[in-house]
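Morning run. Coffee first, then this:
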Amino acid sequence: INIAGVTYWSSEIVFVDLFKHSQTFKSQAPGKAYGQGGPLDLTADGWVRSLRGDGHFADSIILTRPKLGYPAGVYTCLYEGKGKIQFAYRTKAVEESPGRIRVEVGSDLDLLTLKIPETDPADPVRNIRVILPGFEDTYESQPFHPEFLRRWERFKVLRFMDLQRTNNSKVAQWSDRPTPQMQTQGDDAGVALEYLIQLANTLDADPWFCMPHMAGDDYVRSFAEMVKANLEPGLKIHIEYSNECWNGIFDQARYCRDQGKALRLSDNDYQAQLRYYSKRTVEIFKIWEDVFAGKDRLVRVLAAQSANPWTSEQVMDFEEAYRHADVLAVAPYFGNALGDPKTQNEIAQMTVDQILDKCARYIAEGNKTIAEQARAAKERGLRLVAYEAGQHLAGYGGAENNKRLEDLFHAANRHPRMKSLYLDYLAGWRQNGGTTAVIFSSLGGYSKWGSWGLMEYHGQSPAEAPKYRGVIEFLDQNPRWW
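And here it is:
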């Protein structure tokens, strides 16, 4: 499963300390627009070091728009330093002492915000934790919400692409990485590696790490060394360079293009892009192999575009990269053609059943491409895996603004037939040569940008989540076949 990113607007509650989901602090001042309070003095870890006075304050949205409201009860806020913390909106402090506030939160709350109106520059307010009811004694030893763990305990590979905020990453040096001490795990740098390792260990699942596209060798080596030191020895590690470096919508793809052109890897810009991706990927593999004294614990991933087998040939064959890899990874989504802006009005007039019928046909057609990709991988001694997989009902190129189309796609994702479509889809993946399939994605609310989550919100019953039930049933009926 691809675990969805941690943000303050997450539908998925990953941490029992909700402040790990929080927004970075925003500067506020009387009479000014939101977040326009002027420069904010922060520590290196993102905590508020000082305020100007004259009503200047900092605030952070902790979590917003949960489907069923927040878990009701008394939350415990712990902090270090001297200053004041206040909770905005419909909350009530029932107990307060230095370093500790108990706050009553009702289930009807739709926005939880923390405000710092005062902080002592010599001993600033920091290390804030906002702990859900019942977890004050255990949040340090077990930071993950038990419902989150139960939801994904059947899945034996966890891809951390979104948790690492891989797409368009600005991380280049090891010093740029997120740490557990930072104000939030929901910043652009993503979740700290320490937590990713702990999650893999807790669920006894193989981690799939994505190396940031600008990361230097020192970063890669330090990352690998931390994994080696802390990951349970029985777990394997999937290693991938960035994500979708073939896809021009991302910074990493443009970076690979520019690097490939600078190195004159091809006269064709796109081929130079793919060749640089392949070259840098192999360099990263070699660093991991050096740290782990071999490749036995590694699953070395070369990724390409599912619908374009030519890209697979390019990344596998350049400088015989396939000899240094273990798997070819693609993303065999189904249904993405239905979001085409050229046909949006026609598609929007269809019924849900007609949309699902078309999805079934796309699955059958996609099986041919899967078989072709599997053959190409096998010829080079590689397994075929899916770095992402599932439905792709989302408008694009302007069609995302077609509300009728959006509603139709949401209804299709919630329809009971979607369970059987997932079963057919995964059966076809297996029958046509696929092995590991990492579903995209774990949990998330539906929007005009897509219906990606197997489930939609924390607390949702599996009975209301046909995609989730389909995947679980497939897992029950299909032990590992390779």
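The mean pLDDT is 96. Good start to the day.
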